[in-house]
């Protein structure tokens, strides 16, 4: 009912950059994060890149008194890195892993092995539906080979939110989206779901200029990668929206600004984002915000579909190249097998090559055949997913244009 007391919800979101053996001062920073969360009175904590389950267990034990409810989302080879801590009961959870997560042969990036996902907690605080997530990293903005994959992830995330939020009254999404605010992916996500940006809507803001969460002054950031962005970039978000009879307003948004209080190091290479939301029931249902049919949204969908099409053509070329490589390796193996059988049958007086070289060549051809076949199949699946996403976007675009 209108006039009911406002519920104040405090949220903490952080990409922890806690990669075992690789992240600098990882254990010290995880302890620092736990100590800070114990001192603060947050209602909901969303963490990404907690790659070690032992780190999660350490945090869980330390935070049990303040945040009695928690969940760790497991996926991929090394895990999703997503976890949530809450003062309110978590009644149900769901993990959705994106269809495309980069390339398995890009070992130096590793996104494919962790299985980028979105984790959902329901019943955290009736009627709140909370999402913690991370999308594929950008790595190189000038030559972003992962843009089609990230757009597929953004589209799947938007569709996932639309289909899972129908029974909720308030939807909250927090995490490292690895996209700038003006990028087509974030505009697609927000336009298609109606999510509001806490930074843009906040009555009061305090923290890094422009709300940046990856800043050059952070001692853990790669300074060379930050040269084009002297002020930093904003890639960590808290997004929200109200459905049904609720309204949500962002009273305050803060980011950390370098080293944590009383220490010489920050929590992570990312700055934390902290939002204070006011949730209130109103007398009449709120206006629907799912998929606003306007020209701006149609333009965004068109732009995203174009980029996905570019990725589709690149994937088709990769599929063709690896398929041709597999065929050539198979032909070489057949040629060697024919020569070996001819020698055994006495059709040849002597082996045309030394046996060692012959065997090494056979093993090399077999290795190339297996590798090329696997990558051909991988890119075949990539083509199917990109093509399917392109078709979905076309149907959505047609619906937007035909809607009265």
Automatic annotation (TrEMBL):
Predominant location category: membrane
GO cellular component terms, A-Z: membrane
Subcellular location field: Membrane
Alphabetic keyword roster: Hydrolase, Lipid metabolism, Magnesium, Membrane, Metal-binding, Sphingolipid metabolism, Transmembrane, Transmembrane helix
Positions of transmembrane segments: 326-347, 353-378
A Pfam family per the record: Exo_endo_phos
Biological process according to GO: sphingolipid metabolic process
This enzyme's EC code(s): 3.1.4.12
Annotated metabolic or biological route of this protein: Sphingolipid metabolism; Lipid metabolism; sphingolipid metabolism
GO MF terms held by the record: metal ion binding; sphingomyelin phosphodiesterase activity
EC class of the enzyme, as a word: hydrolase
Ranges of residues in domain Endonuclease/exonuclease/phosphatase: 25-270
Membrane topology of this protein: Multi-pass membrane protein
Family indicated by similarity: Belongs to the neutral sphingomyelinase family.
Protein name per Swiss-Prot or TrEMBL: sphingomyelin phosphodiesterase
Source species of the chain: Thryothorus ludovicianus (Carolina wren)
